[in-house]
Amino acid sequence: MRPLGLCALFLLIWLNTALATDNAVYPVDVTHWWVSLGEQASIQVIERHLAEQGIVWITEAMAGSGTSRYMDVVRRRVAAGNPPMASQVIGYDIQEWARQGKLANLDAIAEQQEWDEVVPFDIQHLSKYQGHWVAAPINAHSTNWLWLNQPQLSRLGLTVPDTWPDLIHMLEAARLADIIPLAIGRDAWEHTLLFESVAAGAGGAEFYRRVFLDLDPVALDDAMLGLIFQRMSQLREYMDEGMNTRSWDQGTDLVRTGQALMQVQGSWVNGEFNAHGMIPGQDFACFRFPDTQGVFLFNSDQYMFFKDYPVDPGIRNTFASTLMEVELQRELNIATGAAPARVDVPRESFNQCGQRAINDLRAANMRRTVMGSIAMGNANPGKVKEAIYTVVSDHLLGRISDAQAVDRMKAVIINAARSQGN
């Protein structure tokens, strides 16, 4: 990571160049965490569309996927009086910054582009603070996906797993064929991403919403929580020791190269496969996690804008409005593998998995089964998310039993409900 002062130096160089040549070039300082191959392709789409508006961004990219280590860098910059103009952000981190009064109000742009009409309500819930737009959502990743290596799937004679027994049958077939059944990495957010799909599949949409979004202690069900952790223990048997040192994208590479059969991950995997020129139905397959058909667990990448950054408001508004344009969201999400954050983007040019994601989002939006991802911070404030991380990861790594995990998860929900006055 380069020193923070270097950003200011680059901005001065760009500004002096613009003034000397009379070109309308507006350099701005932006932070993001898109550093993998597929993510870099996505960033290039945004950069190109902004460049057409005369906006050139000086980027500070840090791997972190919206984790605390990424946001700690942003916090240090803000505390030092050197905020970026815009920062990538997900979930309840938006609310934290808005509560501190750090974010610019985007209501005028939102009204002009009719964001209220085209962005699903559950995403709007995170993009707004006290009824005002403070962030611009650029996609709607879904996390309850299975990603599979198509040649291995065909070789093993396997088909779509509609139910939990179907999934176990697939994993067992992979183990007998001496390939890694289920690729996963070391991070607690990955473990929790797997957990949320298991929870939504076992308990259904209503259980997931009441327990993990509403934090309703009345909805806690010992038997259901026990079933969820029993299923997580079953899945543990199909993971390899390499998970202890692996990142999420290294797990994706195992599936891509056929060393592993499947990965439970968000639709950013589609973007990684796209970047490698892979074709769904030929090189890979995408299925909904068993028993979560009709549910869209989402993670929406967004951009927030710090109001203390010294820039003409018109440039900031142009940046935000460009992010929300139909064509940018179409091109961007072909690259990211996600559904656009707008429900009115044409789907024809997306690949098979992308079109399925768009269709699923629109259908789930009508049924009110678009629900925030626990793992990606779209379901709960940071302290609750981290507490769930600890329980889920300790359990998946075999540090606590199923029964202990149930008790600890109940305590997390009850304590969170009390702190929020539920």
Automatic annotation (TrEMBL):
InterPro entries referenced in this protein's UniProt entry, alphabetically: Bact_solute-bd_prot1, SBP
Keyword Lipoprotein: no
Subcellular location: Periplasm
Signal peptide span: 1-20
Main location group: periplasm
Cellular component aspect of the GO annotation: periplasmic space
Coiled coil region boundaries: none
Pfam families linked to this entry: SBP_bac_1 (PF01547)
Highest rank taxon of the organism: Bacteria
Keywords on record: Signal, Transport
UniProt-listed Gene3D superfamilies: Periplasmic binding protein-like II
The family this protein is said to belong to: Belongs to the bacterial solute-binding protein 1 family.
Function: Part of a binding-protein-dependent transport system for a sugar.
Record protein name field: Probable sugar-binding periplasmic protein
